[in-house]
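Standup notes, structure subgroup. Blocker cleared on the 3,4-dihydroxyphenylalanine input:
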Amino acid sequence: MLDKIKELISEAEQYKAESLQDLEDFRIKHLSKKGSLAQLFEDFKVISNDKKKEVGQALNELKQAIQSKIDILKDELGTSAESSSISDLTLSAESLPLGSRHPISIVRNEILEIFSRLGFTVSEGPEIEDDWHVFTSLNFPPEHPARDMQDTFFIEKNPDILLRTHTSSIQVRVMEHTKPPIRTVSPGRVFRNEAISARAHCIFHQVEGLYIDENVSFADLKQTLLYFAKEMFGESTQIRLRPSYFPFTEPSAEMDVSCALCGGKGCNVCKYTGWLEVLGCGMVDPAVLENNNIDSKKYTGFAFGMGIERLAMLKFQIRDLRLYFENDARFLRQFSGAI
Ligand code: DAH
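Run returned:
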């Protein structure tokens, strides 16, 4: 038996493989369940005790010789296989799998970028807010329905601490610590106690805009929003402003853009009106400026607020709000081409 083992050791030491397949055959021949080594260990069980030590050592030596031969040859054959493939420099590079941005992030970034070209900075604020920043300083009368439990999520039983229902609260935070001129856009997540459906969600995103300086007029607001609409939806886009009401702006308006899908002729997306509502806006109510220690005789300003989900729906023709929150990779992958 000892002779047989020694023979196999020298065979292993001299072994050369032409290919990885050869090497695999070699491995099977010696190390598989029915290989030479397994057979020898089988025989080892029945040899006399006085030979066990010597034969055992020889067997271990054989096992090591085979294993180290396999390791060395595998390295050699492996690297030569690799180097032969990269030596062809004309091969095209392997493409890396890329992730994609969420459509909400794509549209938020685009909005912020458009306003940054007009000199607007970006500001943010807390999602957990107090009554003053979300309602009182924005001129909401105490009995206003938006304060109702149906709309607002309150934190525990304290009616003063709540989840912000709109990003207009960031206006207040900016006015608190910045002297005019102020020109800022504020993106953020907002919360309203609404039943979830294709058209409503209890969590969504807004971008708020605020511009305060001397002699800011409604014409400035209109021109700013026209520029935004053309950048966002295309050069031929038109806007219209309809009178509306918000407690913190006077006068207030809602802005529609001409429907990019049908060019204003009427289709099922614009419900055959040719127009799509995209945001609320107005001149900052002097009472709001005074609430925040800004001299309303010297300064005027405009503000606007828009829902990011709504703009993304129009831009990408998404028909169900819930898709934004489900993290379905099949939905998200569709945006991998967008920036
Ligand atoms: N905060 C309003 C909302 O959530 C949107 C809005 C309307 C913001 C008019 C404004 C504005 O700044 O001037 O519905």
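Discussed briefly. The first strand starts at residue 121 and ends at 122.
Next: hand off to the docking folks.
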